[in-house]
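Dear Dr. H.,

I hope your travels went smoothly. While you were away I took the liberty of generating a structure for the chain from your last submission, since the lab meeting agenda had it listed for discussion. I wanted you to have the full record in hand beforehand rather than looking at slides cold. The sequence, exactly as received, is reproduced here:
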Amino acid sequence: TMFPADGAARFVALRRQALGDGALDFLLLLRNERERPQPSPVHVAAYSTKKQSVLKSLEQEADSLAATPFNIGHVAIGTALSYLDFRYADEDWRTPHPRIARWHRDFCARPSVRATEPIDDS
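The corresponding predicted structure, in token form, is as follows:
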């Protein structure tokens, strides 16, 4: 199931879901801020720092993430990383974070993920 029943596994899945959801939230805010006529350097720096912190945390957790049965935490983290690819394609987040990049490559190979890849029609 997407939400494990076991207490410890459930807590880990929900924590990962919160991390992925929170990352996606500030990535959207960062994109919106960058597109303003006069972006706030303070806000851009704060969101960029958060992005680096999340990537560092995910890099440390990548092996455990890969070893855990697929659940809601994987969906949230995978979605946030895919958003990085989609809206921040010019930024190389993979090179300094090879373990989470490898996990994300495997995540993106899942049929359900491939069937729901974003299309930019703007």
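Two observations you may find useful: The chain has five helices and no strands. The mean pLDDT is 94.

With kind regards,
E. W.
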